[in-house]
Predict the 3D structure of the following.
Amino acid sequence: MAEIILPGCGQEPLIGYLKALGVFRLVGEQYGPDSSSIRGFWRDGLFGLQGGGLSAEGLVDYFLDAYRPAPLIAPWNRGSGFWGGPTAPAVLDAVARSGDPRLATYRQTIAATRAVIERMGLERGNLDKAKLELFRELRSVLPDEAVRWIDALAVIGDDRVVFARLLGTGGNDGHLEFSINFMQRLAQVLPVSGQEAAPAARRRRRQHGYDRDLSRAWLVQALFRAGDAELIPAAVGQYHPGGAGGPNAVAGFEGDSLVNPWDYVLAMEGSLLLAGSLTRRGSSAGAASGTTSAAFPFTVAPSPAGWPTIEAADVGDVRQERQEVWLPIWERPATLREIQHVLAEGRAQVGRRRAATGADFVRAVAQLGVDRGLSGFVRYAFLRRNGRSHLAAPLGLERVGARPKEWVGLLDGRLDVWVARFRRWATEENAPASRRAALQEIDEAIFRLSRAPEGEDGRVERARAAQGLLRALHRAEMLASRSAEGRRILGRPVPPLRPARRWVDVCDDGSPEFRLARAIASLEPRWQAEADYPAPLPARSYVSSVRVSKGGGWEWAENNPRLVWSHGSLEANLIRLLQRRLVDAVQAGQTGPAPLDATYSVDIGDVALWLRGGLDDERIAELVPGLTLLDYPATESPAARAAGSARQSVRSDGRRSASGLDLLDPLYALFKPLFHARPLVGADGEALPLTPDQAILVRLRQGDIPQAQEAANLAIARWRAAGVAILGTGGGRTAGDPAGRWKVYWSVSGRPHRLAAALAFPVRSVMPLLAMITRAEVREGAC
């Protein structure tokens, strides 16, 4: 079957896409008896046609000789020609008086509209108050072709009219009135006045009248990008940023707006395929009452994310509903009726609801929550420029994958509700920039996660995107926790994210930094409501302004006394966290092992790498707060233990060591068993009287060698009191040196402060450490 590729009808800019829809709609309805068999498709960014006996020459002849324009009018606008003005009335009258039979419906529409205006007694001064009634009256009396235009640019509700942002605000953008501009361009490509310019007048009439040869040249250029027809200075509006003129458009201070008249005519014709409708949204309780809202095909609220140069300010004031549109791309040839059905549905699903924002839409695309016959969407945002005018900025093509990206489904459910509430708070009137920035960070992370590739090759990119989302959610939560209004609107902090193992699998980039952060974040997964006693609680209680509620979830804690995590160094944060948990355990009357039980403990090799400064502290510190949002199970699963064991002792350069002990500071082996979550048992099977000692931490935290040596003294004394002899500390005792010769083997050097911080990491086992410090029979007991 012969195909016609239209190089002039590309996915970008917006005028090219709408042109493609216009050509497809018109040939599918008007070309001839075989119009219904014509199929359209996209290939390599260009639109194509096949079937129906189409040929390139026949297509050009049809538009020149048989094309019947849609009757675009906008009497609800003061610049529409119905209410006076310097030029618009003359443009409208030229069409109304035209003798061209192809404009018969246009003439009928103008006459019927004037009759409605007269019957309603409308005047320029009372137009705004009667706008809703005018829309209803026009829709009931105008020809079907005119009603299609009304439905494309507006949805008429019970008490208001909602306009499609693709067509400005009711068919105008700033001072540009779309219907008048359409009629002016028609007069340049069709014999609206009933006569063609004489050869001598053709140059003058390029801007004001019809010339068939010039119209053909423009048409060939518009469809096939062939020829060198001169563009004319005329308004093009938001659809072609590169041709809109303005400052810096050309050499010098400001350039004219240049346009091919056929480009604008065909683009406006294409917009008629994008009709809006009223949709019903159920109430929160799922009642049938709900509310109704206007919906236009694949049109959502703007998300200032997903593109390097877009910012929150670029999308304009959200209260003005300046939306973004995701226009479908289909590569399989389809008939006009099939595409009309897709556009009439015009929705994308996230979970059980309709996509409402750009961030929602990219999730829907990733999860294949859109029509399966589509191969992608080209995204456009309407950015405010030049005062009240806007430009449609292309933000790239989002492809529908071969398979659903199941990990994106983690955002559904309660988290989806929380983000929607945060969005409402962040975009309300006069919201500070900090809220919008926090929302933008969330949306950017959603875009990155939804775009992340599948398979093992995309694991790291996928993990970094998921980590970024958790980090953004925690920052948003902290921002809201400092505002009474924020706490009220959001109701509760970020809900515990479930299932934690799926989140962990997605976030795991295989790095030791991630494993160390995960260990800290999963501390004390068996939570209980905070009562009068401060039992050691989940790590989230120590890094956020939240607390465990009596109902088993999380609630706001405006002045959380346990909040010890700050923007300081990782070392300082870890020490404060460990010290606070030890204090909580003592005050709760808990004795025994350190309160460092965790769902995901780490291998000693990772701690050894960290102690030697071979890891990124800043990254670990950034990962911890976000990872605390997960609802960790009480114990580490066998699969998680196996996976962790398989990755044990991997150096930062990817090489594997037997145990990591070759990298380990021996003093860590002396201290860590005293700060372990499991008790130590002697040869007789009885638990050894070893408990974590705050005095050791206090001395190590000082950071100087003498104090650290005192900490080592205390540790050795603890071991001896429990009946465990430490290697290298026996013999040669004197009154001045009661510890014997231990200093020869256990001298302190390096960074005591870092050594103290390392004690906060929950490790899988201290058995390798015990082998380094003693020959006594000591083993780990049960928790």
